[in-house]
């Protein structure tokens, strides 16, 4: 097995199970044209997010890390009538691209996009009494992951689902001496997750078009 084969398998899965979608394809194209980093979830991962949110019956979703809005579209489409999604993005340029992509997908009335550092926007959400959110997706800068998870817990309830992306880092997460701030950020998050008695959690490593990585899935089981 090698990255080329992982990508080929992802393409095979996507061709079979992820229907072509003009709004999603346009969102990816617009992100590339705007020079956004190519770090959005893969199509089959986007559909996994959508299915998890639908299975959970989520009516309110919080996303930390919008990028160009690709994963936002997947998640927003999981919502039932009357559902809402709040997404947080620190980079104004990324937010501008995401707003256009969400408008093209006719989701502007469902999604609220807040621009600013999540370290600032998350406390504001809490102060405004927003939440609890049924489903929370964290896909933002990894050095701050433990802090984001702490705020996610404050904005969750018993029964909420929290999903955190990119927690394996091509396997580097097992190296306690890594000099990579992202790896150390993930390790701090993992240690916090292991100690946190309010959640039941696991992690899975994955391979695919995005390389060797993985995600954490946590269910809030206590207040």
Observed structural traits:
single chain; 223 residues; alpha/beta; Rossmann fold; seven-stranded mixed sheet
How does the SSE layout of this entry go?
Elements: H1 3-17, H2 22-33, H3 43-56, E1 60-64, H4 70-76, E2 84-89, H5 92-104, E3 111-115, H6 118-127, E4 135-138, H7 145-154, E5 161-165, H8 181-195, E6 199-208, E7 211-220
Parallel strand pairs: 1-2, 1-4, 2-3, 4-5
Antiparallel strand pairs: 5-7, 6-7
Helix pairs in contact: 2-5, 3-4, 6-7, 7-8
Poorly predicted regions are: none
DSSP strand count:
7
Share in helix: 40-55%
By CATH reckoning, the class would read Alpha Beta
Order of helices and strands: HHHEHEHEHEHEHEE
Distance between the termini: 43 Å
Rg is: 17 Å
Number of helices: 8
Morphology: globular
Largest sheet: 7 strands, mixed
Estimated structural class = alpha/beta
Q: How much is the average pLDDT?
A: 97
- What portion of residues belong to β-strands? 15-25%
CATH architecture: 3-Layer(aba) Sandwich
Corresponding CATH superfamily: Vaccinia Virus protein VP39
Would you give an account of this structure?
The protein has eight helices and seven strands, in the order αααβαβαβαβαβαββ. The protein has one domain (3-220): Rossmann fold, CATH 3.40.50.150. The chain is globular and about 40 Å long. The protein has a seven-stranded mixed sheet, sandwiched between helices. It has 223 residues and is α/β, with parallel strands linked by helices. The chain has helices at residues 3-17, 22-33, 43-56, 70-76, 92-104, 118-127, 145-154, 181-195; strands at 60-64, 84-89, 111-115, 135-138, 161-165, 199-208, 211-220.
